[in-house]
Amino acid sequence: FQDLFGVSMVVPLLNLHIKSLGASPTVAGIIGSLYGVMQLFSSTFVGCWSDIVGRQYSLLACILLSALGYFLLGTSTTVFLFAISRVPVGIFKHTLSISKALLSDLVSEQDRPLVIGRFNAASSMGFILGPVVGGYFTELEGGFYKSSFVCASIFILNAGLVWMLPWREENTSSSQNAQGTSSNKITENFSAKAKHDLQFQSAATGSMASHSPFQSSWIQTAVMLKRIKGIAFSDLWDIFLVRLLMSVAILLYYSNFGLALEERFGLKPKFTGYLISYSSTLGALAGFVLEPITRLYQHNTYTILLHSSILTCTLILLYTSALNVWTVILSSTFLSFSTTVGRTCLTDLELSLGGNQARGALLGVGQSVTSVGRIVAPLLSGIAQEFSPCGPPSLGVALALVAILVMSVNKPKYCSIGNVKLKTQ
Q1: CA of 348: how far to CAs of 259, 310, 351, 413, in Å?
Q2: Domains defined along the chain, listed by start
Q3: Are the beta carbons of 371 and 39 closer than 8 angstroms?
Q4: Which of the residues 83, 85, 367, 387 has an alpha carbon 20 to 30 A from that of 72?
């Protein structure tokens, strides 16, 4: 909550601040794109790094370096300093994905969707309240700089909380053995690769004790590259493809949301803002209703994901063909729930398919896939808007249908994972 609360105080003000520094829209766009590119390439490496060095060390490093970035942002009086301040944040702002990996280390597979759902709800609440406080600071003299310093202070507070937590080594051998009994070939193969990497890592740890820090860094890099290669050549392409398609579909829905409502129904931006805030609040609350949903589906993550994806596709189609504002409000209401449930189930399914020894790497790859969606979606939205205001969401419907088709074709693999989870529970 504090992480997203601090970030959302600053992010809405970035464009206004860089414009006040004299940057042209093109320069501002380039700096924003570079931040996205850094996130794209760094998320996988940072996630894999957290598997190797441990969650506490990696989480502390990411929090403190992100705090440094926001502190530099609070001292940025030129465009060059603004760009420099975005570098540590672009590379190391992966605190949420590492926290999810930590949660998956601490809880059972049965409780994982519920805990991650509540985690997402807390994050969403932070993102809802943060812009309000940031807007208050903008009315003060030097408001942006004060917001940045407050954000950096929140990150330092988070680092202190992480440092104070009671840490211990988690024994994952029992869950790994349970997973090894699965008849699912993908999970067995990936777990075997992860186990081999773990043995390599153990040997590397012994070597690091007797080598220089420079050599230790090379050993860690070798382990990271080996794990990333294992993920790249595994049979997890379908679940990452589903994540990409669904993320682009949802981004297309929101890409021209305000402009489309103004052109189609003559609604003012103020009403659109209220509607987006309403949807975000419902999305945050959706994280707390996952428990009855998972009980209803007997903890079958695949079926929940499939049905939530079908509902998401239907609601975007309903929005696209809406004849009045009430239909838009109806679709936005239920879309908040379906997208929140879908994101949580996607994360849980990735961890179930990937095994226990590479959770950080898997979540990092998933974050990279989402970053690709954020890069691709604006381009597709611009092209689709050339034909109609409803072009972007219509394209989103098509991509969601492809994602549903991919899940349906690979149903035996997902169902075997679900059956194993039910047996172990």
Answers
A1: 35, 18, 5, 15
A2: 1-164 (1.20.1250.20), 234-424 (1.20.1250.20)
A3: yes
A4: 367
d(CA 68, CA 144): 16
Model pTM? Answer: 0.70
Nearest CA to 63 among 53, 71, 52? 71
Reported as half-sphere exposure (CB side, CA atoms, 13 A), residue 295 has a value of 4
Amino acid at 141: E
Structure tokens at 252: 């297309």
Tokens representing 226? 């080996």
Instruction: Write out pLDDT tens, residues 28-75.
Output: 778 877 887 888 888 888 888 888 888 888 999 999 999 999 999 988
- Please give the distance of CA 113 from its chain centroid, rounded to a whole number: 15
- Rounded CA-CA distance 368/340 in Å is 19
pLDDT digits (tens, 9 = 90+) for 113-160: 888 888 888 888 888 888 878 878 877 788 889 889 999 999 999 999
CA atoms within 13 Å, Cβ hemisphere of 255: 29
* pLDDT computed for residue 40 by the predictor: 82
CB-based contacts of 417: which residues, under 8 Å, 6+ apart?
182, 184, 187, 301, 302, 349, 352, 353
Quick one: pLDDT at residue 62? 93
Contact by Cβ (8 Å): 333, 282: yes
Residue 76 Ramachandran class (φ > 0 left, ψ -120 to 50 alpha, else beta): beta
